[in-house]
Amino acid sequence: MDFPILSAVTFIPLAGAILILLVKMLTGAQIRPDGTEDERVVYAGIMFSVATFVMSIVMFLSFDLSGTGYQLVEEVEWFSGIKYKMGIDGMSLLLILLTTLLTPIALIASIGSIKHRLTEYIVSFLVLETFMIGVFCALDLVVFYVFFEAGLIPMFIIIGVWGGVDRIYASFKFFLYTLLGSLFMLAAVVYMYLTAGTSDVVQLEQFEFAKGAQTWLWLAFFASFAVKLPMWPVHTWLPDAHVQAPTGGSVILAGILLKMGGYGFLRFSLPMFPDASVLFQPFVFTISVIAIVYASLVAWRQTDMKKLIAYSSVAHMGFVTLGIFSFTEYGVQGAIFQMLSHGLISGALFLIVGVVYDRMHTREISAYGGLVHRMPVYATLFMLFTMANVGLPGTSGFVGEILTMVGAYQASTWAAAGAALGVIFSAVYMLTLYRRTVFGKITNPEVETIEDVNLKELICLIPLAIGTILFGILPNLIFDITRESSLHALAQMAGG
Amino acid sequence: MLFDEAIQFIVLGPGLAALVAGLFQRFIGDRGAMVVTTVIVLLAGILSLYQLFMYAAGVGGAGHAEHASLAADTGHATDYVGQHIIKLVTWMEVGQFKADWAIRVDAMSIVMMAVITSVSGLVHLYSWGYMQDDPHKARFFAYLSLFTFAMLMLVTADNFIQLFFGWEGVGLASYLLIGFWYQNKAPNDAAIKAFVTNRVGDFGLALGIMAVFLVFGSVEFKTVLSAIKENSEVVPLALAEAGTVRELVVPFLSWNIPALELIGVLLFIGAMGKSAQFFLHVWLPDAMEGPTPVSALIHAATMVTAGVYLVCLVSPIYEYAPFAASMIALIGAVTALYAATVGMAQNDIKRVIAYSTCSQLGYMFFAAGIGAYEAAMFHLFTHAFFKALLFLGAGSVIHGAHHEQDMRNMGGFARYMPLTYGAMMIGTIAIIGLGLPHVWGLSGFFSKDAIIETAFAAGMNGVPFGQLAFWFGIIAALLTSFYSWRLIYMTFHGPRAEPHHDDAHGHDDHGHDHHHGDPHESPMVMLIPLGLLSIGAIFAGWYFYDAFVGHDYKEFWNGAIYAAKENTVLKDKYNVPEWVFWAPLFVTITGFLIATFTYLFNRGVGERIAQNGGPLHALFANKWYFDEIYNATLVRGAAWLGDIFKTGDKKVVDGVGPDGVAALVRWSSRRLSAMHTGYLYHYAFVIIGAALVFGAILFWRGGGAG
Asked: How confident is the model at residue B62 (pLDDT cuts 50, 70, 90)?
């Protein structure tokens, strides 16, 4: 057997987490009298996450871009026919790279802003990273389910322990929603295993579930993925979770966790329940368009920066579901692209908010104004990501939106027209946010002494800025990798 | 003829300049940024003007024999057969959805490149003087060059997606430049208003592009437009059966609409936004909050004409979409008249010119709507020079008058700034279209009269709204003459008004000290661009008449603009009754006389009329209350809806969902036990329980099998 590179990528963070805990146990708690901890643990965490990133690059290089099907497959018998099976295609490859890129960034962003229970914080992130990568690698339904559900726990802890004032309420809400989805999905997983006699994803793709069964299986998966994405109206956990989460948590939440929903639709719902997917297309289209318009309008009326961006995420995810359920190459390619692009842009926007939050300790838009006078570099980066979020051509935000709309247009002109309304509204809320925080005269005396972005923040933001522009100008870099996965999902639909 | 490299330099050079000025301003300083951007754009301007002259000379010397020999000298006159595309790199390719980064060279793009780079180069130069006291010069010049680049990408696109890139790119640059003085409220409001209103237009444009792709399976101009010209059979990707494209009917929302009509209307909605046409015009006057060179370049000469350019570029669509075309004619005619009425009642010097721009764009649109695309492009071309001249002249006045913009506080400036006065006079004579029919006139005479004559010819041929466009055009010409002379008289003639400062003043105030005193003439660096633009304003119409709309027009456009066989308006303009030729001159003189009487000989009469003007004057002065109506309905409506949703999220969705469940859980857990459980444990419990159930099933099933 070849070197199990996927397992290596998946479990390096976990190994790092265990190592950090061991060292801490062996050397005794490094807690100072004031309750803070030795900051070196952060660097250890960053080191492990960077090692994971490097390993994921090795994975990328081992991946045959012209190949078809799942690659780098690892398979070990687990129990009762359930296998520990890992493997990736173009879509999962890129989502893993996004994960391994954003995790170190989230950790670097935490330097200095997290002071208490630092070790646990770092460990939570590393464990979370393992679960997230696992989700994108798993080729066995049970393994997928385990990673998918397990990932909630560290996130739950991150929000509940290092969150803001209302963190308990927020984490509770997060918990309730996801619990709801998980239970349905678990039932579906059990049923599928019993009916098809296997939990192997590749075999399940070939298995034809009866139409009636498809309907409720689809709904059960949908319950889980829709919460994750999140789709309207099960989105209300997201703004609270984001507002309360520390910056690093928000980056991961928006950047990766939301993508699991879209990934799930493409990996499971479409190929395995094609008839039900077609059946529910009008339903998904309807709530996607509602999500786009509704969330955009709500975003505009927010007074809290993070909430605004959280609602904007809901709107942007609406494009993802729209694209996926258009069942066209344009829509699906656009949806995958939109997921990656949103990972970069929303991650960056949460970092952007984090930069000023660290300095002013408020997320209220009205507390700012005139930042450009003191923070020109910050203003420039903020403008870039604002425009990317607005979907300006030349940034990655545009490509996903136009393609998902092109896909949607072929299925329903109503859906495309509704989604296009979002194009207007996104300009309204983002430009209003930018203008109130960055432009204008300085009204809050605290802003007079605020400092521009420092090196640490630049290290976090610059890679995301480069990605946003590069993939906006040359999106084919992505499409060439994801084409195979998109066509595969669609072929499964047509064939099965 | 030019090499591909030179053309790439014209298009990409300004982009590079913007990058250098924007990113490296710390290292090269203000002066460095100014030099880099100005030199590159001026060079691009010279190259593109050279290209235009060579090209025009090659197709018959624009009627001037001496240029035909130049074409013979270069020996490359036939290089431009149809079009020439320089592909840079593939942008995106998904299925049939394929868009390149490319530079399309044909008559349309040659004309536009010349307009954009030459005006932009002069505006760059002018800004050396106008912005000399501004603390953010590098940023300003970077934005200017960025704009130039985006605009060039727009006009040289070979597909709808790159056009959309340029389209939104100029929108970004416009947003950044309107809000250049970001510390003040008004520019910020205006910048957002401009961007959002344009986005409303882009809503239509984006849907139009999607419709194009659905019908043609391509977003490349060549594929799409030649399919229409040849009426070939197309196979829509979905929603409709295959058919010949001109007869094809596709569904949109709840209707079934001829495909070309649908595409035509949607694309035009985009054009309405960018070119500030009636209903979507509200952003343009507010855009005057930006520095005056910006108003000249973006909001007069180039960006706002992008809509006209788009309509002319896709002329085959409108040739076979009579409803969409008549909509353009109607909206254009209404805009021409509407904006002129408002322009009469404004007191801010820049706003008068802004409404004038709006009105002139209306002329271009109704020309395109009745099928005279060439005349629309011709007016676009000449208008760029005299309108840029007027704006830069106004900028020179504002600069010389220490940031005074209210014409009521001006007067008698002619003797303080004679050169500016001269330039403004040339601009005014050009815009009112003064000229002797069949003999000679300034630029505006040739292009505007061509439009009015074709409108009349269209009316004779029974083209919808042709008659209306003609009459609206005539009335608007009267008003144009009136408000243009009113501007001249209020600013340059009469006694010197004592400056009094109120809140309305100071739009162009960028924070440096006011050094009050007599108005003064502007520096040479500002006057030279005025001089060069004056040459364009005087001669461009005469020189290019034959090429654009005269007897060489077919060779000149060379397929870049398409007219159906039945569409003969451009030729029929020679067959209109004699009085039609003289009507514009008559109304122009009438407008001049009224203005002279009320604002020169009887200074104060105009203002008294305005004060006692009653509801009509109030209607004009308040721009027909568009802002008020939009605010009361659209803006407030959306805000109200947003607030309802925001509350609904908390009360309804959460109330029924998690909060409701939470209340239930809290209530039942109090009942069941006093145990102190954290939610985490709940969750772990459920997971473990679920795993147990799952394991049990597996065990049971395994046992059963064995």
From this structure: very low
Rounded to an integer, the average pLDDT of B689-701 is 60
CA distance B388 to B297: 6
In whole angstroms, give the CA distance from residue A228 to residue B422: 68
Interface mutation target, options A172, A199, A382, A434, chain B, most CBs of B under 10 Å: A172
Express each pLDDT in A453-470 by its tens digit. Answer: 999 999 999 999 999 999
Task: Report the Cα–Cα distance between both ends of chain B, in Å, rounded.
Answer: 86
Reported as a pLDDT band with limits 50, 70 and 90, residue A196 is confident
Model ipTM? 0.93
Chain A residues whose CB is inside 8 A of the B686 CB are: 179, 182-183
B100 touches chain A (CB under 8 A): no
Mean pLDDT in residue range B501-512: 46
How far apart are alpha carbons A20 and A17 in whole angstroms? 5
pLDDT, residue B612, reads 77
Q: Which of A176, A392, A439 sits opposite B182 (nearest CB)?
A: A439
The whole-angstrom distance between B275's CA and the closest CA on chain A is 17
Residue B75 half-sphere exposure toward CB, CA atoms < 13 A: 1
| Contact (Cβ atoms closer than 8 angstroms) between residue A228 and residue A181 | yes
Give A301's contacts in chain B (Cβ within 8 Å).
639, 642-643, 645-646
Tokens standing for residue B502:
């109120």
Cis peptide bond prior to A4, omega within 30° of 0: no
How far apart, in whole angstroms, are the C-alpha atoms of residue A326 and residue A407?
Answer: 5
For the entire predicted model, the pTM comes to 0.91
CB B389 within 8 A of CB B537: yes
List chain A residues with CB under 8 Å of B90.
476
For residue B252, give the 3-state DSSP assignment.
Answer: strand
Alpha-helical runs (H) found in B158-250: 160-178, 185-216, 221-229
- Confidence bin at B66 (pLDDT 50/70/90): very low
Nearest to A238 by CA among B649, B678, B664, B647: B649
Q: Do B90 and A370 touch (CB under 8 A)?
A: no
Closest CA–CA distance from residue B201 to any residue of chain A (Å):
9
Shortest alpha-carbon distance between residue B642 and chain A (Å): 5
Per-residue pLDDT of A376-386, as tens digits, reads 999 999 999 99
B interface test, pick of A371, A386, A439 with most B CB neighbours within 10 Å:
A439
10 Å Cβ neighbour count for A203? 14
Q: Are A417 and B202 within 8 A, CB to CB?
A: no
Beta-carbon separation of B683 and A152 below 8 A: yes
Please list every residue in chain B whose beta carbon sits closer than 8 Å to the beta carbon of residue A403: 92, 94, 97
The Cα A405–Cα A325 span in angstroms is 11
Chain B residues close to A329, C-beta within 8 Å = 94-95
Q: What is the pLDDT of residues A118-164, one digit of tens each?
A: 888 999 999 999 999 999 999 999 999 999 988 888 888 888 888 88
